[in-house]
From TrEMBL:
Residues 231-320 form the Beta-ketoacyl-[acyl-carrier-protein] synthase III C-terminal domain. This is 3-oxoacyl-ACP synthase. Pfam families: ACP_syn_III, ACP_syn_III_C. GO terms for molecular function: 3-oxoacyl-[acyl-carrier-protein] synthase activity. It comes from Cytobacillus kochii. Keywords: Acyltransferase, Transferase.
Length: 320
């Protein structure tokens, strides 16, 4: 991984706004916010910003940081679950915005909250197989506030807006993608849906996301098994991992995994209190913050874990 950058709206919204919002509905969400680990988050407050615009800004920032131009990129992949448009692809707009070359491969991906992690895994493996792809630009961006349900704290008070972009580059150094493992249980496929009735029924009319209550903690034992298997098959132990970049959906879930493996606090990169839950990009905003603060250094082994609607989970090992 050559470089990583992030983008988020300027507007900061603190817990006080959401506490007052739900108090008017006769509900106290103070304990909920504590469980989720929220304090503030960045929320779009204008008509110009969206998943696409944030992704483009993040892409431009990471190219500047890497001292590269759009013409250096061989592959562009844009991960989002809240697309501004379904066609043309968001990657097409990024291609134009950065001045990428005509032979650059582009496409969008969607694995909900697991999307950017899954995309990095897919792109890494593809680059290993294709000698003509030397540099890839991966973007994860969601304007979640545009579809959050104002009567559901799980989305309205929890989700936030933000983007991350990174450049993967082939190198002779012993760094980069190591391995990943997946787990899918489709039993809860109808618990988190958008649009609820489907596009064929809504005819393009805007809706809010529907997030039905279910026990999300049920995924944690399986997540721990995934992590154990991933480490074992790569001859690593928990102690060999230098930093953990987990889904920022709920602080309580992170603490459960941390407790299970007895992971020291300094290895857990937590940013959910500052950024809220940015869905697809959240593990990589963790990575960004870890690098920027010096907690993640070149050569460090980083373990990612995240979960998407349905659910699907991915754990990934990466040497930064």
């Amino acid at each position: 991984m050559h470089a990583i950058a992030i983008y988020h709206p300027e507007n900061v919204v603190t817990n006080d706004f959401y506490i007052e919002h739900f108090k008017k509905q006769g509900r106290d969400i103070t304990h909920f916010l504590e469980i989720m680990g929220r304090k503030e988050r960045y929320i779009i407050d204008n008509s110009k910003e969206n998943s696409l615009s944030m992704g483009i800004e993040a892409a431009k920032k990471v190219l500047t940081k890497a001292e590269m131009a759009g013409g250096d990129i061989d592959l562009i992949v844009f991960s989002t679950q809240v697309p501004e448009r379904t066609f043309p692809s968001h990657a097409m707009y990024v291609h134009e915005a950065i001045g990428a070359k005509n032979h650059t491969m582009i496409y969008d991906s969607n694995a909900n909250c697991a999307g950017m992690t899954l995309t990095v895994e897919n792109v890494s493996r593809y680059m290993m197989a294709n000698p003509r792809v030397q540099k890839a630009l991966v973007i994860g961006s969601d304007a979640n506030s545009l579809i959050s349900h104002p009567q559901q704290e799980i989305t309205f008070a929890n989700f936030a807006d933000g983007a991350a972009a990174l450049i993967l580059e082939k190198t002779t150094e012993e760094t980069g993608f190591i391995d990943a493992i997946f787990e899918v249980d489709s039993a809860n496929k109808d618990n988190i849906v958008y649009p609820q009735a489907g596009f064929s029924q809504t005819r393009g009319q805007a809706e809010n996301i529907v997030f039905l209550p279910f026990d999300g903690a049920m995924a944690i034992p399986v997540a721990c098994e995934m992590i154990e298997e991933l480490l074992e098959r790569n001859n690593l132990t928990i102690g060999d991992v230098d930093a953990y970049c987990f889904s920022q959906f709920a602080l309580s879930n992170i603490k459960k995994i941390q407790s299970h493996f007895e992971i020291t606090q300094e290895k857990i990169i937590y940013i959910g209190d500052k950024y809220g839950y940015t869905t697809t990009s959240s593990p990589f905003i963790c990575l960004y913050e870890g690098i920027e603060t010096g907690r993640i250094k070149r050569g460090d082994t980083v373990l990612f874990w995240t979960i998407g609607a349905g659910h699907e989970m991915v754990a990934m090992l990466f040497k930064y």
